[in-house]
Design goal:
By secondary structure, the protein is an alpha+beta fold. 38% of the residues lie in helices and 24% in strands. The chain has a 4-stranded antiparallel beta sheet, covered by helices on one side. A hairpin with a 2-residue loop joins strand 1 and strand 2.
Amino acid sequence: MSGSDVAAIDTWLEEIGARWGASERAIFAVRLCIAELAANVVEHGIARTSADHMVVTLRRLGSGIDVEFLDSRAPFDPTGHASPEARSLEAASPGGRGLMLLQAYASGLTYSHDGTYNRVHLTINSN
């Protein structure tokens, strides 16, 4: 898995969103959330095999887009790792900010590990 894989996923997401006639806001939110998840996998995920991979599944909903993101790297739950809100710039830690964005844009954010995949499920509302 590499940065070029993340870029290819992003292009695919934009094409699917346009084909579905999704709102610009919904397409932006899906792209942002998947980019954050994929970047975390590529940059921080602990490789288990050389065949590690990501799978993204989208489902069109009447009220938005349902997203399932799978990766085969070591278990990691992104739903519980956002940095707490800092009281000052000096007190802020550099990590966890992207996960805060994920939580801000997505609803129904859940995580599970099935023995093979990290599974993140989320919904992006169209309004």
